[in-house]
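Shapes recur. Our protein:

. . .
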Amino acid sequence: MASSVVVANGNLNPNDTRGKTITCKAAVAYGPGEPFVVERILVHPPQKIEVRIKILFTTICHTDLTAWQGENEARRAYPRIFGHEASGIVESVGEGVSDMNEGDLVVPIFNGECGDCKYCKCEKTNKCERFGVDAMKKVMVSDGATRFYTMDGKPIFHFLNTSTFTEYTVVDSACIVKIHIDGSNGDLNRNIKRLTLLSCGVSSGVGAAWNTADVHFGSTVAVFGLGVVGLAVAEGARARGASRIIGVDINSDKFIKAREMGITDFINPKDDERPVYEIIGEMTGGGVHYSFECAGNLNVLRDAFLSAHEGWGLTVLVGIHLSPKMLPIHPMELFHGRRIVGSNFGGIKGKTQLPHFAKECMNGVVKLDDFITHELPFKEINQAFDLLTTGKSLRCLLHF
């Protein structure tokens, strides 16, 4: 798929491959940290309550990077197709799928919503009992098998309910969301590129600011870690009218981009021997209303917690923590009035809330274009990983 989209009768029009095993290109990982092998694979048809998607665009999230590096041995499974941030069109649907049709524009989501379990029916959470985020999951729910195979018939494992580093993927219907975007202005292709970001990073960050923290007008905010998720938090806080947004990162080169996306002040912990929370306390008269830990580092988490103001400060944990160590917080410190809470996929219920969230973002409430710093053909996925590893890109959009 080149970076253009075919439209027929108002719908995106995939090839007629319904019910057939598809041969396509995919980036397969054969071991931790090993270069991806772009090769032809077999993708079987969707089974009951599953959907097969033709991927239009996919990007690389930091979670893909750490999973590919295999830092957590318990989560290793090879060969495997990584990737969980993408946009695509429905190629075919399995038995029992009633909320989408072939040709629909969709985004896969790593944190699904079945709509039937006690969690999905509870307005206080976006967790799903059967299809929630699960880094250990490597096969489909319906039969415990994979839908990917090498050309000589060996199974290839799935990743995070999605596996988007492939021309075609199969996902549980609970892990895919139909999105409508306006293509009347002739810019459908650009809008689909932007939509790709909502599959994970931007939704997780903006949602953390809007839903989990509910940042209020005139508030002060500190964001620890200025990757895509951290900058998305800043964008969300800016859109809510935060008066001051302090960015914390050990890479000062990020500040130029960060200022364009809502950060008003920047702290590099390497530039001052004092603890970051002391610096932020001095800057804000005691601490911020909201702090967000987006780095996945326990030492950073403690700084973020102590940067929140006593009595009312809230710390939102957004980063992925692979360390087996526990929270670096003494129970008595919670009696000072600071609070801490985790945020998964920005508190967004995928199927019921993401379409409206996408509409707000597409209408310009959040500046999505700034997050796409590079675009490459899919075959250059290893170069895209290098860009992320070296901190040179936020999101590198890959197209077939």
User: Anything to note?
Assistant: Residues 85 and 200 are 6 Å apart (CA to CA). Residues 204-344 form a domain with the Rossmann fold fold (CATH 3.40.50.720). The chain has two domains: 5-178+370-399, 204-344. The longest strand covers residues 50-59.
